[in-house]
Every structure is written in structure tokens, then in C-alpha cells.
Predict the 3D structure of the following.
Amino acid sequence: LVSVQAVRTSADFAVQIGRLSQVANASTTEFQKFAQAARTVGLEQDKVADILKDVNDRVGDFLATGGGPMKDFFENVAPLVGVTAENFRNLSGPQALQLYVDTLQKAGASQQDFTFYLEAMASDTTALLPLLKDQGAVMRQLGTEAERTGRIISEDAVTAAVDYTNKAQALNDTLKVQLLETIYSLEDELIVLKQFVTDYGLPAFEA
């Protein structure tokens, strides 16, 4: 039988997936596939979410100000292959990073170029390069395999886990409040009980 603790642990894991997906600006399925593939190059899902968050921030920064870490990319690389900032608008974190790598590859970037531009986006992003080259062929393959072998939680399950966790937390909060209210309502009785234990219980125990 599945224990309550196992249910809680599974729910917490699913809730974490939901939270990290939001940070990465991706659907839960898209994020999980990306994260499962990234594990093969030594990056765990928390780090993946941080990388994709930085990618989103860099794209947003350039779209808003025309500056930031992506300025060199849009001045020196993107024009070579006809890519503009508008091509990045409204993309998910994984999609934006894939377009970034695709653009660098089409422009004939060297390994040194890849390292410079990827690290400008987020620390350790270069580790993802083998997965993202050739339009993300390896990334798609590993993501599909993860889904085929049952390592991807469905979006419905993530939503249900979030709902369960919220309801469980609300119930827990209610019980805490009711317990405190009960204690306060019995304050006089508890003081009498404490005094009785102090005056008679402890001396009797010592004797």
C-alpha cells in the first residue's frame, strides 16, 4: 500500500516541478524533458531552471532596453543570419536558448565563440551545447526517451499535486488555529492544572 508519506513526497516533487517550470518560463512537460536531458551533462533541474530564468531575463532585458548581455549577440551574430530580437519575443525559456544556439551555429561560431556567448547568458550554459547543437537533435531524443520510459509527470498530475498541497496546507493551518483557540479558551483551567502539578504532583513524585 502507498503510505501517506509516499503520497506527500510525490506531491512535493510534482509541486517542485511546477515551481521550476514557472521559473524557466516553460510548460511542465517541456521543462521536464529539458531537465532530464540536461542531467546527462551533469546539470540538475534546479540549475537548469536557473539557467533558463537567466535566458528569459537576458531576452527581456534586450527587448526592453536594447542593451544587456545580449547586445553583442544582436550586433555581431544575429544579423549574419537574419535573426532579430523580435524572433525571441514570446518564446519559452528552452525555445529561446535553442534559437540562440541555432543562430550561433548558422553564423559559423567557433567553440570559443560558443563559450563566450553562452556563458554571457548564464553560468554553465556551455555544458548544454552538445544537446542543443544541430537544432537540438540530442535534446529532443533524450526528452522523448524520458517520456517513453515514464520519467515525465503529466501536466494534469502536477496541477493535481499543487491543488492537494494547497488544500493540505490550508487544513494544517486550520488545525493549528483551532488548537490555539482551544488552548486560549481553557487558559484558566490550564493555569489551575499547572498549579496543582506544581503544588502536589511534583512533591508527590519526589517523595
Notes: The mean pLDDT is 90. DSSP finds nine helices and no strands in the chain.
